[in-house]
């Protein structure tokens, strides 16, 4: 009997302070996704990329034209993962410059087809639409598959239960985590080794009708 599929989940967080509400939200989302997947029998390996620690490396990549070893390792954590949670603080109505710069140094085809949950933090709910007019278009351009529910946490969301018109933060986290877990569960697991090369004759044989006649 085969063991559980080993999923790789990458977390990119662009919080600048320590402690950071952005990192707190990222951890809360990661835990919710991990819990949902483990309930379904999936083993999960979670890797966190703290952009605050890579700020100089990211700037250097723009000047040098290529990432150094430490930044390259972080990029590989993201591009090789089965799924991604990307969380940024909102500055001036959009994602942070550090967040955008990190994804600028990643090849624009490296996230193609990857399930992504986008989230953000900010001081006021007025910035929540940045998820739709900034983050979602960014990952659509990168041809990632963004889950329907984006999670925004304003200062008043921490510890709040929502109101008659909106779900509380906990409900949004749970719903978004379920959507990402669902996409990951139906995504073919990555193989770290090179894919087996199928001989051309075998590929042709698979296309022939069952009676063996050429149409």
From TrEMBL:
Domain of life from the UniProt record: Bacteria
Gene3D superfamilies: 3.40.50.360
Domain NADPH-dependent FMN reductase-like: 7-158
Alphabetic keyword roster: Flavoprotein, FMN, Oxidoreductase
Matching Pfam families: FMN_red
A GO molecular-function descriptor: oxidoreductase activity
Keyword Oxidoreductase on entry: yes
Protein name: Oxidoreductase
Source organism of this protein record: Nonomuraea longispora
């Amino acid at each position: 009997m085969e063991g559980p599929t080993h999923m790789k989940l990458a977390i990119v967080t662009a919080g600048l302070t320590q402690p950071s509400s952005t990192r707190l939200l990222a951890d809360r989302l990661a835990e919710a996704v991990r819990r949902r997947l483990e309930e379904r029998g999936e083993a999960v390996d979670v890797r966190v990329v703290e952009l605050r620690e890579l700020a100089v490396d990211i700037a250097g990549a723009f000047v040098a034209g290529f990432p150094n070893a430490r930044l390259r390792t972080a990029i590989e954590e993201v591009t090789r993962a089965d799924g991604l949670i990307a969380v940024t603080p909102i500055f001036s109505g959009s994602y942070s410059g550090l967040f955008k710069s990190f994804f600028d140094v990643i090849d624009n085809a490296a996230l193609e087809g990857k399930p992504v949950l986008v989230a953000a933090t900010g001081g006021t709910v007025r910035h929540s639409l940045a998820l739709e007019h900034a983050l979602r278009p960014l990952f659509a351009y990168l041809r990632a598959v963004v889950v329907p529910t984006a999670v925004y946490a304003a200062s008043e969301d921490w510890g709040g239960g929502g109101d008659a018109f909106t779900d509380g933060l906990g409900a949004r986290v749970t719903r978004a985590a379920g959507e990402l877990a669902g996409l990951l569960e139906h995504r073919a697991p990555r193989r770290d080794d090179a894919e087996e090369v199928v001989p051309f004759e075998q590929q042709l044989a698979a296309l022939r009708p069952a009676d063996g006649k050429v149409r």
